[in-house]
From TrEMBL:
<keyword id="KW-0040">ANK repeat</keyword>
<dbReference type="InterPro" id="IPR036770">
    <property type="entry name" value="Ankyrin_rpt-contain_sf"/>
</dbReference>
<protein>
    <submittedName>
        <fullName>Ankyrin-2</fullName>
    </submittedName>
</protein>
<feature type="region of interest" description="Disordered">
    <location>
        <begin position="357"/>
        <end position="392"/>
    </location>
</feature>
<feature type="repeat" description="ANK">
    <location>
        <begin position="54"/>
        <end position="90"/>
    </location>
</feature>
<keyword id="KW-0677">Repeat</keyword>
<dbReference type="Pfam" id="PF00023">
    <property type="entry name" value="Ank"/>
</dbReference>
<feature type="region of interest" description="Disordered">
    <location>
        <begin position="310"/>
        <end position="334"/>
    </location>
</feature>
<dbReference type="InterPro" id="IPR002110">
    <property type="entry name" value="Ankyrin_rpt"/>
</dbReference>
Length: 422
């Protein structure tokens, strides 16, 4: 349930009592419509702390004046001139923090609150409805402002938070102004530091709406956005850029604005190579619609490697053959030498295999002779294995053994003809 109720104080600063003094009326009108210089001239006779008949002080009138572009500066002038930052309205006992948050968009309320916090107002003050400025900020879902007036943040920290949030705050306001065809508020939001490149829940940035729903001439707003570093090549959820949407816009074509806008976008760095979901870029869209003037503009600044079709790369027959076949095709003499070397290596590493056939009519004596030869060979191998595996001799005198070892000649063993043990 919202903390705000319908019967709560709704002050109208333009309404003045009939018996208000002439001087107060002039000062009142100056706060609503006067220039900064004119407001400074009223810093006399403690006028900044006077109360009007409707129970408002000058700081309260400013907080509800609706002067979005100058409210922060006017508040700063009044507070520097001695205005009481903790002054309360006579009816509901609201402070300037209450009024700033309740009667203004967050883009206006936030800098005003930050300006007031520099003079250390009582952030814990409750109005006649027992609400603090924090309560109203939460009710309006101004959570960044709420964190500034909860009593835990210093003015410098609040200003730093505003600096980090201003882009998003004014970016949302910019998008709303474009949807409402409000050119003045849109350009004001851009100049106040709107982030022109944030995407909404539909995947669109402000510049996309300029070419789809904005009914006013887009050139002034697009120029202001470009000067504030708007990304002209940012794509929406369908892959379209500002240039693509400009070419697709039928109203811009009928009104004769398309050529100038396309030329400006290309001059500012918009690329014509981004493709939409159908695979069409700006050049393809212009070609499809027979916009010959737009085609000439896009081709003039289009990269040459994109204009020229790349030759098709044919597959060479060598990619489908084995490495040996590639060598044979390129260097026949190299292949012959490779094959000859492989043949030599194969002959050298191959031992002749003796196959003896045992005829069924062989004599029993021949079989016994062969068995005896096999037993003698096995005995020889066993004796060699036993010789190689003699138990190590226990050395009792290490010094004497080292002396004998130094005078003993070590025989050179040719391991090439050594008989394998296993």
């Amino acid at each position: 349930m919202s903390l705000l109720v319908e019967d709560e104080e709704r002050l109208e600063p333009i309404r003045l009592e009939e018996h208000e003094s002439a001087e107060h009326k002039k000062f009142y009108d100056c706060l609503l419509q006067g220039t900064i210089a004119e407001i400074k001239e009223w810093n006399k006779d403690d006028m900044y702390n006077t109360y009007f008949k409707n129970g408002l002080a000058p700081i309260h009138v400013t907080a509800m004046s609706g002067r979005d572009d100058e409210m922060e500066e006017i508040l700063t002038i009044l507070l520097k001139g001695g205005a009481d930052v903790n002054a309360k309205t006579k009816s509901d006992h609201n402070s300037v923090l209450h009024l700033l948050i309740k009667h203004n968009h967050i883009s206006v309320a936030f800098p005003g609150v930050v300006a007031a916090l520099d003079y250390f107002p009582d952030v814990h003050w409750r109005n006649r409805h027992l609400r603090t400025a924090y309560d109203i900020a939460v009710a309006r879902e101004y959570f960044d402002i709420a964190s500034c007036v909860d009593g835990t943040m210093m003015p410098a920290d609040a200003r730093a938070l505003y600096g980090r949030s201003v882009g998003v705050i004014y970016g949302k306001r910019l998008m709303a102004a474009i949807l409402n065809n409000d050119e003045e508020d849109a350009i004001l939001s851009v100049n106040k530091g709107a982030n022109c490149n944030i995407l909404n829940d539909h995947g669109c940035a402000a510049i996309h709406y300029v070419f789809t729903v904005y009914e006013l001439p887009p050139m002034p707003l697009v120029t202001a956005m470009h000067q504030k570093k708007a990304d002209l090549n940012i794509t929406d959820s369908e892959g379209d850029t500002a240039l693509n949407l400009c070419v697709k816009s039928r109203p811009l074509r009928l009104s004769g604005q398309m050529n100038n806008i396309v030329a400006a976008l290309v001059r500012w760095g918009a690329l014509s190579t981004y493709k939409d979901l159908d695979g069409n870029d700006a050049l393809a869209l212009a070609t499809e619609r027979n916009y010959n003037d737009i085609v000439r503009l896009l081709k003039k600044d289009r990269a040459q490697h994109i204009l020229t079709e790349e030759p098709e790369i044919s597959k060479t027959p060598l990619e489908d053959v084995s490495p040996h076949t590639r060598i044979r095709n390129k260097r026949p003499e190299l292949m012959q030498s490779v094959e000859a070397g492989a043949l030599k290596s194969q002959i050298a590493n191959t031992e002749p295999e003796v196959i003896e056939s045992m005829d069924a009519g062989s004599s029993q004596s021949q079989r016994k002779d062969k068995e005896q030869v096999v037993e003698e060979s096995a005995g020889t191998m066993s004796s060699i294995s036993t010789m190689d595996r003699q138990e190590p001799e226990v050395i009792k005198d290490p010094m004497k053994a080292m002396a004998e070892l130094s005078t003993t000649e070590v025989p050179i063993v040719n391991f090439k003809h050594a008989i394998p043990l296993f």
